[in-house]
Amino acid sequence: MENICLENIQTCVLLANLSSSSKNPESEALFVTLGIRMAEILGLDQPDPEDSEVLRETKCRVWWTLFMADRWSSVGRNLRRAMPDFNQETPLPMDEDYFHHLDIDQGTDSVEASPPRPRTLGLWAYNIMLAKQLGPIRDLNKQWNQEGISEDYVMQRVAHLAKDLQLWEASLPEEKKATDENLQAHSAKKLGGPFLAIHTGYHQHFVLLLFRFLDLNRAQTPKTIEYAELCKYHARSISQLVKLSRQVPNCAMVFGGVGYMTVASSAVLLHTLIFGQQDDTADIRAKLESNYETIYALQKCWPSIQNSVSRQICVSGPFLTSAGKTSRAVPKDLCEARGNANLQVRQVDGEVFGRTPLAAG
């Protein structure tokens, strides 16, 4: 701890990931906070012109990795964030392909001859921008449980947050949008996993925002029905992207967050299978089967995913029996788990949810 250096900050990130996978979110939060304080002491948020381009970008990526980790781990334990909400003065990470091809042997003596920092932002940069939406979604889900909150307020906030997510997707450069051509291009550069990850995260944010509209005991209006269908669409999209990550070369997503996003997708798919009146039952079952293949494969690296799987079995079990259609509401405990928008492995009073990765690609 006394040796404050970049390598020890990176070690804190690794230990935080290890703590998360070992179902120890308290230790994770401590390691994240320790890494943040070290980074602040070293001033990683301010580029040093004396550094080589490789070192400057490495510091930048470590800083934003801590930013992301702080957002998720603080939500997981209901802690105050240790880092500012969003500091536009700190450069966002550059294009990953450019970064991976920088001259690692470049010394400080050659800084003047270095090419200028590229203006093209990387996938990690857009993931950071997406993470800005998590806090407001989490706050709304917490407010949703409070008595006296008006339906008009809820609908206005949902519409506003949905618009923000759509604007994020629209802001993506053409080469980073979710198309088959772009997937193949990123796969060729061995960046298919990070490419799929940001789009899977986008759909996950929508699921977190809209899952309560699946509750058929709510008053049904054209807008609430639209939101429920939109939630199902995004859950299906998660399943499809996760399946692609297993099928397309150089597109594997092996971080723990994939498991938790897949569990969330499966919860919506199960609800649709049980209570829906659709003609695509076979497709839903196929997506569920694919989801569970992913979940159980990821448990080899992230044992903590089992918590979310057990949670889903406990919640869904009563609805899968022959008499399971006695209630058409989203179970309250599932609402509470999803409503915390907590992508941090945790179990507090029986409440479990998932998380996203701490390390940048």
TrEMBL record:
Q: Which residues form a coiled coil?
A: none
GO CC annotations, alphabetized = nucleus
Q: Where in the cell is it found?
A: Nucleus
User: In this protein, which residues make up the domain named Xylanolytic transcriptional activator regulatory?
Assistant: 28-99
Q: Which SMART domains match?
A: Fungal_trans (SM00906)
Molecular function GO labels: DNA binding; DNA-binding transcription factor activity, RNA polymerase II-specific; zinc ion binding
One example of a Gene Ontology biological process annotation? DNA-templated transcription
Give UniProt keywords alphabetically: Metal-binding, Nucleus, Transcription, Transcription regulation
- Record lineage: Eukaryota, Fungi, Dikarya, Ascomycota, Pezizomycotina
Q: Name one Pfam family in it.
A: Fungal_trans
What is the protein name for this chain? Answer: Xylanolytic transcriptional activator regulatory domain-containing protein
Q: What is its main location?
A: nucleus
